Amino acid sequence: MNDVKKISSQENINKLLASTPSKPKCDRVIYRGYTILVTMPCWNEEGKVGPGVKAVPKTLVDTVCVVDNGSIDNTAKEADEAGALVITHPVNLGAGGGIRTGLEYGRINDYDLLAVLAGDNQDDPNDLYQAVDRVIDSDLDYVQGSRWMKEGKRENMTYSRTILTWVYSFLFRILFRTKITDATNGFRVMKRGVLENPKLNLWQDWLIQYELEPYLLIQTCRSGYKVAEVPVTKRYHNDMKDNTKMVPFKSWWSILRPLFLLSLRLKS
Prior knowledge:
The chain is of the alpha/beta class.
């Protein structure tokens, strides 16, 4: 655990990012005046990450940044061959650690919009068009994907996951008085400035696992940024038990605890 804490420190991640190449701004794809980076955190996603990277629309997104989170399979090789920029962690730094590295790479390299997609090809990258257009047309800061909106879709979703995600979003709305229908959805697009919020600190040790995503959404809503949702599709693979790599109870507590720690002001 101490090794993971050291490797995942802001100092070490910044060193890793400083050694990672970045495309010059003048050579980047521009969509409606914005440059866009998509990050995909991955852990042992061979067979899924390649198709996911290739499906990202090239006329919209300049860079797909795959964060290889200590995989022991061919995730990094497959992502690279599919055209992604690959950043490799020497060990698994948790879901939060993977997302944080990708977002930080986009922030320090001045991409205008940063998006997060699942590294296991559960999201439909074409949903990025409506999310990005919504950010631009409505002058929003942050758009969350929702599989529960009228035009949202859920493919092969288990009953238990359906109940848990609905209950979670209900609690989110009650505790933070925010109209979010799908608070656990990993699909999101945000302006770079969201990450420069002084009330946001993604480098806290307690955010290393699944806590980071709800923390980011909560703090963004709380800080007065303009947040909305768009309908998206979520596809769950038949070969993944219960639709997820999460460990029962432990992983769900990891997602739940930011709701209580932040609502009670025990964390910030």
